[in-house]
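[Meeting: bench + compute handoff]

Bench side (C.D.) handed over the final construct sequence. Compute side (W.E.) agreed to return the predicted structure before the next meeting so the bench team could plan truncations. Sequence as handed over:
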Amino acid sequence: MSFLNSKSGDNMEEKILLPYTHIKNLPTKEWCRNMQTSFNHWLRVPQDKLEEVINITEMFYICTVIEDDILDGTKLRRGVPTAHSTFGLPLTVNSISHLQLLILQRCMRLHPKSSGDFYDDLTEGKFTLPIIHATKTSKRDAILNILKQKTNDFTLKQYCVSLLEQAGSLQYTRDVLTKLDSELRDEIKKFGGNPPLEAVLDDLLSWRDT
């Protein structure tokens, strides 16, 4: 990554990226990387290009994690103080901005026609499938009122989950996920199988335990 050509510029970039490095070094689940590499069983992307795509994806993911922690007021991330709790809000915000620039630069190098439509994905307030389902039930108003608050209150969140359960939204989501899992496995079989991707699907079944 290049910020300035001088040695002092390299030191400055290293400091700006401290919040990113802090989160990057946390223990992570391997299923995300395994999913990306498993698709190469079919796509046959050159290894150097594949590694660059994986690295860009990781940078983008970490960028969203840092931003989400700020917006949600989260203090801990996997048992470790969050980036903004450790390095302060000003440096962390600067790190996010610099990361977004680096991501765009690397995408442009990977493919000159790449666009920079990343900000839409960073926007908060996306409706999850259970919430969307719940808006069509009698629990709609109560759930939406809680959603608008973006609360950190555990009791209120618990109450919202109970409303989603009563509305049948959580069961609906489980049913949809079960159906999607079955359909994906059928499609994989049609293409001659893909053991790495099937292993990823197995890992993603952890939602059944929730």
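W.E. noted at the follow-up: Residues 1-6, 117-125 have pLDDT under 50 and may be disordered. C.D. will use this when planning the next construct.
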